[in-house]
Write a structure and sequence with these properties.
This protein is an alpha+beta fold. The protein has a single domain, classed as Chloramphenicol acetyltransferase-like domain (Chloramphenicol Acetyltransferase), CATH 3.30.559. Helix content is about 30%, strand content about 20%. The chain is built from twelve helices and nine strands. Strands 5-4-6-7-8-3-9 form a seven-stranded mixed sheet. Strands 1-2 form a two-stranded antiparallel ribbon. The chain is globular.
Length: about 350
Amino acid sequence: MEGLREARFPFSKLDENLICPIKTFAPEVREGSTVPTPVLFLQANFIRGGLLLTINAVHRTMDITGQVHMLSLLSKACRNVPFTDEEVTNGNLDRRNIIPLLDENWEADAQPPVIPKTTSTDTPSKQSAPPPQIGYAWAYFSFTSTSVAQLKAHATSSVTSPSAFVSSDDSLCALIWQSIARARLARLDPATASIFTRIVEIRQLFDIPKEFPGNIVTQTLNNSTLQDVTSQTIGDLASQLRSKLDPESLKHTFQANATRQARTKNKIIKPAAVDHSNFVMMSSWMKADCYDFDFNLGLGKPEAVRRPKFTPFPGAVFLSPRALDGEVVAGMCLREDEMEILKADEELLKYGQYIG
């Protein structure tokens, strides 16, 4: 535990193959299977001087909000604290009717938004060289509460539209997207598309109680070029991300997708083909309150909440739950050459510190 603490709990020391009860990309459950399938796994890893408690949830059954609420219930149960009537009722709502579908007059003429398939272009100087063996790296970057506040202030002051609001989450997402885009400019043409998707939790848009554990998220799609992403101010890029969070648009798109799926006989959704060389998928857990759970173990509150390293997923970025002192840790998976550039990115290092 002391070694982990001194290293600040990096990806390199937190491998899911060693500390998790199931892998992130576990085999799919076969359609029509009648065998009950667990949806929440826990594993206690006893190490010298401490404990690593890992919790895996099946994403089809719950999002991060649902998973955190399930953990809050587990922590209450461990302390023999009874659940409230509201927790029991809202936790058992009928998922089949939780999202109101659009009426029969709605025409499914528009296709659901998809991540565009793009082809990246290496710079001419790199085209003649044989393609190197690509390696991928997971790494964490730490942002203190002070640096996050400074970043938000900088973003707010650099928005060209005077009435635009940007949050800390918007600002941090913009900084990370722009930093990754700069790293990719070392090998890609500036006109190459840069795709940024952002997972958004939308319970409040449908008056769904926060105690409902189901998967109620959608994603926004931002499509620019590397040149555009790197040339904008942090404030304008954050404002661009914020503009995709229009409540009515998010609500209608989600209902349209749900209605389209309800009218489709084949319910299996195949994942879209993605060019990971210019793709960033952001999932923010900053608001997930994970640092108050003690599970009555007598060990106090957790020192760190992290996402263990798993199979490389280039372009994936996770903002970990905000710590008690306000620290936010961003975990990301990139090509090794991109990560080396990112580790020396002066703009990123104004606010963040590399952990690994």
